[in-house]
Amino acid sequence: MNANATNSSPSTKASRLGALAPLMAALILAGCASALPAPAEHAGVEIPASFSTPAAQPAAGWTTAAPAESQARGQWWLAFADPELNALVERAGSANTDIQTAAARLAEARALLRNADAQRQPQLGASGGVARQAGANTAGGAQPATLATAGLNLSYEVDLFGRLSQASQAAQLDAQSREALLQSARLMVQADVAQTYMQLRSLQTERQLVQQSLVAYGDTLKLIERRYNAGDAAELDVARMQTEVSATESEAFALERQQAILTHALAVLVGDVASGFTLDPTSAEPHLPVIPAGVPGTMLARRPDVSAAQASVLAAQARVGVAQAAWFPAITLTGNGGYASPELGDLFKWSARSWGIGALLSLPIFDGGQRAAQEDGARARLEAAVAAQRGQVLIAFRDVEDQLSTLRLLAGQAQSLGQAVKSAERATHLSDVRYRNGLVSQLELLDARRAELRNRRQALQVHTAQYVATIGLIRALGGDWSAA
Question: Which ranges of 137-296 does DSSP label H, i.e. alpha helix?
């Protein structure tokens, strides 16, 4: 045996190396490719040591914690000790359309994750068919012949460069983001239900105050009419009092209109029809919980919208890796086994068996810039996700600061209005006594009553604002503060 028969010639070696050059270049590129830099913690937002509100500074500074997409938000509404509110929140949790939509989107994301994972597994399928053909594959060349086939086909893509694994990771992060958005939707709906309920209760109480004032005005009007009929009062006094009664009746109708609008909004939140939806007007006043200082330290880790934004950034980063992996070759292993026969009756005989194995290497060389455009698009989406996460973190801080400042200022306002209500009630009582004894004019009595009603209504509105701000702070903190 000569040397030429046992060793390949230099030209043969060169041709083989030339055929393997694209694969070798891709492997070198894969080895030199560096991992994408990790996103900056909290999207690059500098975390302050404490909030600016003195009453809410954390004792031990900020806490670094992992995102909590699936963490329960807690039954924070129980702290208000209102059975009707509890029932409304529970109804909203099962019937609110926003929550149902978010749950459906989570189910869709999980299905896409299963689909991405399935692409990493071997694919097995069955095939069968009958064909009439002529050519090199038939006896006699140009003579038509029938060929029947039946068998199994197996294929598996070798994930050498991580394209499939990164696509699966991106789908998993998308599912985590959707899970966080579902928690965010639940928390938002719960807060909306609680805030609407508190505002509705406030309107009912305010309407009772106006009705009480209307009764007092009506009694005074009757007194003035008796005095006018007896010649002890002028017609101007009657006209003034009648004007006050009519104006107060108008305010009562306005409050009733606002109450109807809030009732209908609450019905939609709990997934009910607005027609016929009512609340028990005799319920006791809810308890106003106090959120202790130091709780906001874990706010960033517990807010579901911040967790969703962070998961979106990581998913966009994984998709940049998928776009980069498109530059590398794809290797697919294939195998098939079954039967092939020109006679349908002989198809499943042992002599008709057939099988085959193969490996397919595909490496795109020129695509007109398609892969580069896809990678640029993936990087742009990553930058957009990082910007969105930064915006979400900034909004989180703003929400907490807004509610803390609001609660601090409302506490002082409520204290001042409480004193104003006591003084106004005393002034109204003294003015009524002096008016009945003829010591003061009707205008002084009306001014005292207007001042009392105004201060009582303002005190009630401030009290309601405290409820609304407390619920807003709970939502800004990500739910139940006792779970922090």
Answer: 163-229, 235-269
